Amino acid sequence: MTKSWKTKLIHSDAKIPAGYRSLATPTYRGSTTVFPSAAAVGDAWDQWRVGYTYGLYGTPTVLELAARICELESGTRTILTPGGQAAISLINFALLQAGDHMLVPASVYHPNRKLATRLLSRFGVTTDFYDPCIGGDISSLIQENTRLVWCESPGSITMEVQDLPAIVAAAHARNCRVVLDNTWSAGVLLDAFAHGVDVTMQALTKYIGGHSDLLLGSVTVREDALYQRLGAAQQVIGCAASPDDCSLALRGLQSLAVRLSAIESSAISVAKWLSSRPEVELVLHPAFESCPGHDLWKRDFTGSSGVFSIVFKAGPTQQQVFAFVDALKLFKVGYSWGGVVSLAVAYDIGRIPGRPSYDHRIVRLNIGLEASTDLVADLEQALPKLWA
Ligand SMILES: Cc1ncc(COP(=O)(O)O)c(C=O)c1O
């Protein structure tokens, strides 16, 4: 068949040598996958079972990252989503229905709370927020229709470490599933499934990506039945992960161990210095006794990452706390964490129901890969702003 140059743009006969074996996983982009025949066309989402049918359900790059996260978390299957919050939404839409109730820690990542109060409430799902330090007493909050108990350990900003085995035992005794936001541990510093959790999610945006240049989430399950519900929901919600972002995350994985270990020791040095400062009332770092649930962290985690908070002694106004943050030169001001640049964000936590009354005195730090001595010097030159 002779072809016009216009057709050649689309259907080329150009040949390249076969057999390139890249050390790096290739980035397979694509929406359409080609079927061998008309009869073979089918829209099944489970690519592990049926082979590739459509890009939405994962190209080889996406499935490789999923399989590697699953391996690291010792789960059964992992599904990737376009961000951590999308992973949270997927779990709730897949596992809840009208009339169900769920329990969520008061310390949860705020958009997770907002999903429950602003959106799921419109679909007939009710939510109660519980004290993250409740442990096994959570059984008193479990109702006939409670289906999910969410955990996030440590909690966002206030850093409470939760008693996962006690919560799991209470929830399983009443037929509820336990879901854990496992982002802080990067899925490697806490073996969630060994502690009985049913579903974990991570914002891969943080430590797995590791360089603040992508948004990605993961949902990992212990049982195939949960995978079936999540996969079927992902198909109709249509939340596909980008192969380019997965490729970056695969690269991030390779340096995760060295980044985490450098970040851990730097964060501990900075936190130690802060705990010696007269301006600081509390260092909320799970590896420090001053952090709620420190003993549980010692029992359940194999290390710490680089996000923690400090609470200043009473005195400075919110404007003065802002002036301290603004005076920092190496620490940048911004959401998200887990990258190589240190960050600082001041919160007014007292306005959120069920959270400790630290009010405007709490600042969350993300420790990056700068020299810890420089980070300490940066904090030291900014602290006088609290009283300026
Ligand atoms: C604990 C936690 N979970 C989930 C998310 C959501 O992740 P993403 O920003 O990828 O949507 C975040 C983001 O800050 C987070 O801190």
Give a description of the structure.
This protein is 34% helix and 15% strand. By secondary structure, it is of the alpha/beta class. It has a 7-stranded mixed beta sheet, sandwiched between helices. The longest helix has 20 residues, at 256-275. It is globular and about 80 Å long. The termini are far apart. 45% of the residues are buried. The model has no long low-confidence stretch (mean pLDDT 97). The protein binds pyridoxal-5'-phosphate. The site of pyridoxal-5'-phosphate has 13 residues, from helix 4.
User: Count of helical segments?
Assistant: 12
What is the chain-wise order of helices and strands? HHHEHEHEEHEEEHHHEHEHEEH
Question: What ligands does this structure carry?
Answer: pyridoxal-5'-phosphate
Q: How many runs of DSSP E, i.e. beta strands?
A: 11
Helical proportion, percent range: 25-40%
Largest sheet: 7 strands, mixed
- What spatial order of strands do you see in the largest sheet? 1-7-6-5-4-2-3
Q: Report the structural category.
A: alpha/beta
Can I get a quick summary?
With 388 residues, this protein is of the alpha/beta class. It has helices at residues 5-10, 47-50, 60-73, 84-95, 110-119, 164-173, 224-237, 243-254, 256-275, 294-300, 318-327, 372-382; strands at residues 77-81, 101-105, 126-130, 146-152, 177-181, 199-203, 217-221, 280-284, 307-312, 343-347, 362-366. Strands 1-7-6-5-4-2-3 form a seven-stranded mixed β-sheet, sandwiched between helices. A four-stranded antiparallel β-sheet has the order 8-9-11-10, covered by helices on one side.
